[in-house]
Design a protein that fits this description.
5 strands; globular; disordered C terminus
């Protein structure tokens, strides 16, 4: 898995860079008319502002989930889609956790215009894409989930 950490690192860098840009935004910018706007919002909660005001608690929960996920995945020799999914999820979780601990809120900036939807950020998008990819891997590629039990079976999954 170590050779795949660059995906998580790139996700965190991209997320924090876009957040940095939105912090300097003077007024919202329409990216796709009628579809998507780049704006600035502070979220002290989680998805859809649930648990607002409990930023520190959510930061600790993020850290625990990252550790639990890492411990759970150590027992498998994952295939490529599952590895990519895990790294997107890791990068997204770390990106939002950093905001919670260092800013006291998560910076959100992507606003969907054609439906009423929560403003979200790049870390949220990475978490969502990673979760969908992980679900697809679990459902449609069970061979990607070989247990790493020390046997001599093929471990070419990388």
């Amino acid at each position: 898995m170590k050779k795949w950490y660059w995906i998580a690192a790139l996700t965190v860098i991209a997320d924090q860079s876009v957040k940095w840009l939105s912090l300097r935004l003077i007024e919202p910018v329409t990216l796709i008319p009628g579809v998507l706007r780049f704006t600035y919002a502070e979220n002290t909660g989680m998805a859809f502002s649930l648990l607002s005001g409990h930023t520190w608690l959510l930061g600790v929960v993020s850290a625990v989930c990252i550790l639990a996920g890492w411990l759970a995945l150590r027992r498998y020799r994952l295939g490529t889609p599952a590895k990519i999914a895990a790294m997107l999820m890791l990068g997204g979780a770390v990106g939002n956790m950093l905001d919670r601990f260092f800013r006291g809120y998560v910076v959100d900036m992507f606003e969907v215009l054609f439906i009423r939807f929560a403003v979200f950020n790049a870390a949220d998008a990475a978490l969502t894409i990673g979760t969908l990819l992980m679900a697809g891997s679990l459902l449609f590629r069970p061979e990607d989930w070989r247990e790493a039990n020390g046997s001599t079976e093929d471990r070419s999954g990388g």
